Amino acid sequence: MLNYLKKINLTFIAVFLGLFFIELTAVQAQEKLPADTSVVSSHQITIDGQKIPYDVTVGTLPVYDDNGEPGAYVQYMYFKRTDIKDMSHRPILFSFNGGPGTASLWMNIGYTGPKRLNVSDEGWPVQPYGVEDNHHSILDVTDLVYINPVNTGFSRIINDGKKEDYFGVKVDVEYLSDWIELFISRNERWTSPKFLMGESYGTTRVSEMAGVMQSNNNIFLNGVILQGNCGIGKTPDFGSPTASVLKLASYTAAAWYHNKLPRDLQSRDLTEIFPEVEQFIFDTYLPAVARSGSLTGAEKEEIAQQVGRYSGLSKQYILNHNLVVSSSSFWKELLRDEGMTIGRLDMRYKGIDEQNAGERSDYNAELLAWENAFTPAMNKYLREDLGFKTDLKYYVFGPVHPWKRDAVNSGFGFSRFNVGDQLRQAMEANPALQLLNQQGYYDGACDVLSAKYSLWHLDPTGKLQNRIHFTSYKSGHMLYVRKEDMIKGNEELRNFIQNVIPEDGEPIKHK
After folding, report:
1. Bridge partners, 44 (sequence order)
2. Residue 27 has pLDDT above 60, yes or no
3. 147 within 8 A of 57, measured Cβ to Cβ
4. Cα separation of 331 and 363, whole Å?
5. Quick one: 101 exposed, middle or buried, by C-beta within 10 A (0-12, 13-18, 19+)?
6. Which of 198, 218, 347, 359 is 20 to 30 A from 45, alpha carbon to alpha carbon?
7. Looking at 221-283, which runs of residues are DSSP E strands?
8. Between these two residues, 54 and 233, which has the higher pLDDT value?
């Protein structure tokens, strides 16, 4: 009898385990999508008084390994205006966000796409979540492709694909360049004017892609757009005194926004103060920091007094930091007397910590606010509005580590190559290629002055200056979350795209 019961129990366990593994297999099956699939829907939007019909394709395309087999797939969203007959005149823009490991939802439903998430005019989350028509979208002048690199959005590794084939500065650029070539062929866009746009780490990505696509894929671009330029390998090493000194200009912007500057500065517009701070940094502050311990006590006092004037910090706090205050210390210190911290990527945002003490905030106030707004809006848009049905998790921030470090250390804790050289070489070899950089004054991570510095050193001869365009906005890293800047930024993008394309038959050559 005992043996019989044992047999029943073993049978039950076997059946239970069998059902468990069947259920596990079913769950695992939902962790991937077909490598080549799409859902298409038709829509219409009014932009600048003009009705624009368009199709949205939510789909996947494979990434092929060296044996010609899919090792991963990339999920994308393709917005195509449908009343255009001659596609040779119709631009196409490929858009990336950053991270690495960040999906492309941010600029899609935050900035350039035909739908924009519901947020306050200054960019703070509101409910109900969702999207509405973006009447300022650039879809009137260019088709748009928002690309989710592997392990972001719904993109995943499949079959025999390996992490090291996708997670790293160099491999990231190489497989995405090949993927764009496949997309262009599939969608018959070889003769269309082509643009790359990247935000944050996306600026690192597209800067190098401009050179790689040109040399490896024979794809020649008309424009590269950097939104929130993080240095492209042309700024001082992260954490160095020089890098921190350049950030004083962004400290001024944050202190001005939070009303922490002396009255005579606070009464002026930020755009008037900025050139004065730049001059102080390059003419006085950097030389003083270079002399370091050789400065007299009186000289240190004088520098600390002026840095305090422009940063909203006390002279003693600056002296305690040997004249150079790190960005993390600044974010913690500026509003310490109010019991608040400020954001990293957007210093307009406030946070609260467990303790007022310390030199680092507990969290990034702006990033959590953005996730609060963007994540539900994008999931609703994809799954409900566009009918892309899947149980797969949409990775806003996906697992892409370890990320291979290929060269110089950067502010993200990984290497970024000297990607500026790739971009410069692409511009040298392609006279039609122009560059636009949009930057937010309140970006504390990828600050305005460091971004300008990177473009000065991108082109040391000055021969490319007429093809490099730079604009600053009174917003943060994602300048478009502020409605006024979203409108202005899209208009600048629209003009850039229309103006940099050569006239029909115009020779593309150095003049």
Report:
1. 53
2. no
3. no
4. 11
5. buried
6. 198
7. 223-227
8. 54
311: helix, strand or coil: helix
**Contact predicate 432/222, CB 8 Å:** yes
Output the pLDDT for position 251.
Answer: 98
Fill in the amino acid letter for 126. Answer: V
Long-range contacts of 38-44 (CB under 8 A, 24+ apart): 39/386, 39/387, 39/388, 41/386, 41/387, 42/82, 43/114
Structure tokens at 154: 């719904």
341-342 and 350-351 beta bridge pairing: antiparallel
319 contacts 301 by C-beta, under 8 angstroms: yes
CB 169 within 8 A of CB 415: yes
Contact present, 205 and 172 (Cβ < 8 Å): yes
Q: Is the preceding peptide bond at 114 cis, omega within 30 degrees of 0?
A: no
* Residue-wise pLDDT tens digits, 369-412: 999 999 999 999 999 999 999 999 999 999 999 999 774 333 33
CA distance linking residue 358 with residue 374, whole number of Å: 31
Q: How far is 55 from 239, CA to CA, in rounded Å? A: 46
State residue 24's pLDDT score: 33
pLDDT at residue 324 in the model: 96
Contact 318, 308 (CB under 8 A): yes
Residue type, 369: A
Helix 248-257 with 448-458: angle, nearest 10 deg: 150
pLDDT tens per residue across span 109-157: 999 999 999 999 999 999 999 999 999 999 999 999 999 999 999 999 9
Q: What is the pTM of this model?
A: 0.91
The CA R_g of the chain, rounded to the nearest whole Å, is 25
End-to-end CA distance of the chain: 98
User: Within the chain, what is the greatest distance between any pair of CA atoms?
Assistant: 98
pLDDT class for 237, splitting at 50, 70, 90?
confident
Phi-psi region of 63 (alpha: psi -120 to 50; beta: other; left: phi over 0): beta
Q: Please state, in angstroms and rounded to a whole number, the distance separating the CA atoms of residues 444 and 410.
A: 15
Query: Which residue type does 469 have?
Result: H
CB 250 within 8 A of CB 449: yes
Sign of the C-alpha dihedral computed for residues 365, 371, 376 and 380 taken in this order: positive
How many secondary structure helices (H) and strands (E) does the chain include?
16, 14
- Residue 411 neighbours by CB distance under 10 Å: 17
